[in-house]
Amino acid sequence: xxxxxxxxxxxxxxxxxxxxxxxxxxxxxxxxxxxxxxxxxxxxxxxxxxxxxxxxxxxxxxxxxxxxxxxxxxxxxxxxxxxxxxxxxxxxxxxxxxxxxxxxxxxxxxxxxxxxxxxxxxxxxxxxxxxxx
Length: 133
Fold this sequence. Notes:
This protein is mainly β. Helix content is 6%, strand content 46%.
């Protein structure tokens, strides 16, 4: 009897964990490449060989604390590459913090109602009305 191989669809999902012990936040700042301003973070790391390296990461999105509506609501929401990003705080099986993330299409932003503005000519004519006394 052959076993079916179940494949898990990981598209538009991710998870973040606490840094490894040998990783340290080093510096943050801006980097200009051919006129394009990038926000960057630099993380000090160490290869298995012992050699120290500095990884440069570019800002690609942002997360904000979310209003929890129920137990299934995300803890964090934001945007990444013009898409919606949601994150749920959780613990690993070793009780370490982690963030489970899901990417979806951006939600349409609510439109602000437009207030009609009379044109200047119409406004001037309104002032010329006769007032009966």
